[in-house]
Amino acid sequence: MRALLRQGVVALMIGVCTPAALAQAPSDILTIDTEAVFANSLFGVALERQIKQAAEALVAENNRIEAELIAEEQALTEQRPDLAPAEFRAKADAFDTRVQAIRAEQDAKARAVQMMDEEGRQRFIEELTPVLADIARQRNAVVVFERHEVFLSAESIDVTVEAISRVNERIGEDALDPLPETDAPADLPAPELPLLSPEPPRGE
Question: What does the pLDDT look like over 142-165, one tens digit per residue?
C-alpha cells in the first residue's frame, strides 16, 4: 500500500534476527500482505469510500464552476463592443482575478484531502504495528516480512487474514472524521477555468 505501509511493517523485529537463526528456525518467520490488510479492513474500506465520494463531489463542483465561468466570460465578451476599452479591461481583469482565486481555492481543497488520506493511512500503520507485534509474540516469531518481498513462502506463515481480524478490533470505520463536503484527492485535476483576454477589440 503505497510506501507508508511497507515502511511501517516490512521488517517488524521482535528480537535479534541473524541469518543462522533464520536458517535453523524457519517457523520464526511470518509474512503479511499489508496492502490486502488495509484494503480489506473496516477502516481501509471506509477511507477509500470517503476519498471516492470526495473525488466525485469535486468533479461535480468543478464542472459547475467551469460552466458558470464560461457563461460569464461569454456574457462579458458580448458586452465588449458596447464598453469603452478602459471599462472592458477593468471588467476583464476583475474576472481573471476571480478565476485565479477560484483555482487556488480548488487546489487547496485537493491538498486538504491528500493530507486526510495520508494521515488516515499513517494512523492505520500505527494501529497495525502493535497487532503484528502481538501476533509475532504469540507465534514466537522474530521477524515479519512483507509477503511481496519474499520470493517463496508457505501459506502457513502468512498472517494477513488474522491481522485483518485483529486490526478491525482496534480501529473501524467509525474512527474516521467526517468528510468536508467539498474536499477531494490531490491527484484530481483542477477545473480548466477560462481566462478572459483584456485586449481591446480591433479598430480601437
Answer: 999 999 888 788 888 999 999 999
CA–CA dist 37, 32 (Å, integer): 8
Is 198 inside a domain boundary?
no
**Nearest of 167, 197, 182, 202 to residue 59 by alpha carbon:** 182
Number of domains into which the chain is organized: 1
d(CA 42, CA 169): 9
Residue 197: pLDDT over 70: no
- Residue 54 C-beta-side C-alpha neighbours within 13 Å: 26
Radius of gyration of the chain (CA): 27
Task: Please give the angle made by the CA atoms of 57, 62 and 65, to the nearest 5 degrees.
Answer: 125
Whole-prediction pTM value?
0.66
Q: How confident is the model at residue 26 (pLDDT cuts 50, 70, 90)?
A: very low
- Domain contains 184: no
Identify whether 167 is part of a domain: yes
User: 10 Å Cβ neighbour count for 3?
Assistant: 9
Q: Contact, 113 vs 54, CB < 8 A?
A: yes
Residue 94 belongs to what domain range? 2-175
Residue 200 lies in a domain: no
